[in-house]
Each structure stands twice: as C-alpha cells, then as structure tokens.
Amino acid sequence: MSFLVKSSLLRRTAPQFARSWYLSSRSFAEVRPPPPPRPEPIVETFSATSNPQPYYAKHPPRELPRIKKRWPAIVATLAVGVGAWAAFMTFVTNQEKISSSVVRQIMRSVREDQKLREVLGDAMRPQPEWWLNGDPLIHGKISQLQGNIDLSFRIKGSKGSGTLYFTSIRKEKGIPYTILRFKVICDDGTIVLVDAKPI
User: Fold this and answer.
1) 108 contacts 164 by C-beta, under 8 angstroms
2) Strand, coil or helix: what is 119?
3) The whole model's pTM is what?
4) Is-contact 177 167, C-beta < 8 A?
5) Is the separation of the CB atoms in 146 and 170 below 8 Å?
6) How confident is the model over 60-75, as a mean pLDDT?
7) In the prediction, which pLDDT does 12 show?
8) Is the sign of the CA dihedral 32, 33, 34, 37 positive or negative?
9) Residue 13, SS3?
10) Confidence class for position 120, pLDDT limits 50, 70, 90
11) C-beta atoms surrounding 115 within 10 Å
C-alpha cells in the first residue's frame, strides 16, 4: 500500500477515534431524586377579635423622675450677682468721695472750728468702718457740674463722736458755693454749727 493511501486512511479514522475516546472518558453527574413535598401550613381562623392586652405586659410603666426646679438656683445666683455689683459700686463711689477736694476742705474747716473742738476734742477725723477696710462711709452725693453738694458722715475726736451734715449749692457757674447747712450733731445730742468760708 502506498504512502498516500495510508495517510488518507489515517485522516478518515482519526476523528472517529478521537470522538469515541472523548465520549468514553466523560463522566456524567448522578441525578438525585426530587425532595418530598412539604405539608401545607395549618390556617387557624378566629370567630372574633382578640382581647386587648396591656402594652407594657413584660415591663410595667414606671414613674418618671421628677425634674429638680432650677429657678431657685437662678434667683439665688442673680441675687448674689446684684448684691456683689451694688457693693462694688458703693465702694468705688465712696472712695471717690473720700479723695475729693470737697471732703478735704470740710475736714479742714471742722478741725479749725473752736466750738467743735471743745465738744469733740482734738484729732478729729472721719470715723473708720471695719467693713470698708478702715475707710469712712460717706453718704450723699458730690455733683460739682450741677452745683450741688449734699454729704453726711461720722466724725470722731478725742472726747466724743457725732454726725456731720453739709449742704451747699451753686446758683450759677463761676460763682462760689452757698453753704446751706454745715453742722455736727454729737452723740450726746449737742448741735454745733460750724463756721466755714464758701467753697
């Protein structure tokens, strides 16, 4: 047999051989049987509506905690703040009055008055207050721009003490003050009128 005939026979038989070998070598999965049918659920019917149940069956309602009132603390804080501010303003204005030239001139006139020295003694000075760190407390106001001075404060000497009252006004700008009241009421009731020159 010639070479050409052999090659043609191989070309014809090779595909059939390869197909038969491929089919014989394939493995197929096993077919499993279908699962058994599940039973249908039982439907339960009711002839009427259900009875209402409490909403908090497992956890009964508890009383809510009472909220503490805050307004007393707020009022107390405001009161303390207002009191502190008032005390500060009183201290500042009192220091301004003590250092003013009007108070210095009043005390100069008091020390030079002979009648007052006979009643209160020597070394007359404003009476200090412990809660003002040793400074005197001066009541009233000093308004030189408006021409109005009205003061009262305690003074103390070697023989006694009393309360000084001083009132002076200025009718027009540029003219001296007119003294309306300048006296000392001693603790024993004695009233001494102080002689002084216009401010």
Assistant:
1) no
2) helix
3) 0.62
4) no
5) no
6) 78
7) 55
8) negative
9) helix
10) very high
11) 13
